[in-house]
């Protein structure tokens, strides 16, 4: 099994099979527009600008489970991210990353890389790095900035 076995909804409500991303390096992030880590959108966009042509894709999943920090509609979230941070990477529908209604994708990601403090996602801007074969290779805490994982992304893009 790999991330390619999942289908998710994009911000417009359309089904997106993650198999569309086969052969790409993926950075999958649960995000929020009203979080102390929200400025990481700038770093994510910088990574995308620098490495998209080499095969990097960033998949943004807004999540309102932590302090209700992503309260807007998908349309409002996309508008905020484009206007404030110039985001051009793909944004998806809001999801839950923990609990009964958690996204099957996130259940899988957590099963692959539980993290230091257990499998549950602790906060927004937790990042999962996926290699070109669809295998989860790293999980990063929200405090880990996009810039600090650039070298690992470059390794996977080679």
What does this structure look like?
This protein has 158 residues and is an alpha/beta fold. It has one domain: 3-Layer(aba) Sandwich (Glutaredoxin), CATH 3.40.30. The chain contains four helices and seven strands. The strands form two sheets. A five-stranded mixed beta sheet has the order 5-4-3-6-7. The chain has a two-stranded antiparallel ribbon with strand order 1-2. Strand 6 (127-130) and strand 7 (136-140) form a beta hairpin. It is globular, with a radius of gyration of 14 Å.
| Assigned CATH class | Alpha Beta
CATH fold-level name = Glutaredoxin
State the end-to-end distance: 23 Å
Strand-residue proportion: 15-25%
Q: Which regions contain 5 or more consecutive residues with pLDDT less than 50? A: none
Q: Give the biggest sheet.
A: 5 strands, mixed
Net shape: globular
Helical content band:
25-40%
Mean pLDDT: 93
The number of distinct β-strands equals: 7
- Please state the structural category: alpha/beta
Strand order of the largest sheet: 5-4-3-6-7
- Under CATH, the homologous superfamily reads Glutaredoxin
Q: How do the helices and strands follow one another from N- to C-terminus?
A: EEEHEHEHEEH
SS field, number of helical segments: 4
What would you say the CATH architecture is? 3-Layer(aba) Sandwich
């Amino acid at each position: 099994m790999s991330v390619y076995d999942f289908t998710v909804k994009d911000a417009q409500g359309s089904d997106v099979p993650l198999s569309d991303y086969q052969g790409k390096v993926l950075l999958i992030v649960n995000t929020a527009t009203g979080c102390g880590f929200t400025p990481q959108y700038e770093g994510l966009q910088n990574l995308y600008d620098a490495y998209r042509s080499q095969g990097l894709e960033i998949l943004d999943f807004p999540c309102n489970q932590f302090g209700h920090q992503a309260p807007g509609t998908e349309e409002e979230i996309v508008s905020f991210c484009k206007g404030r941070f110039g985001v051009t990477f793909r944004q998806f529908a809001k999801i839950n990353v923990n609990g009964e209604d958690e996204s099957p994708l996130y259940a899988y990601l957590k099963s692959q890389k539980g993290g230091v403090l257990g499998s549950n996602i602790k906060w927004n801007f937790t990042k999962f790095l996926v290699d070109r074969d669809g295998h989860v290779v790293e999980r990063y805490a929200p405090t880990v900035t996009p810039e600090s994982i650039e070298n690992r992304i470059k390794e996977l893009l080679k």
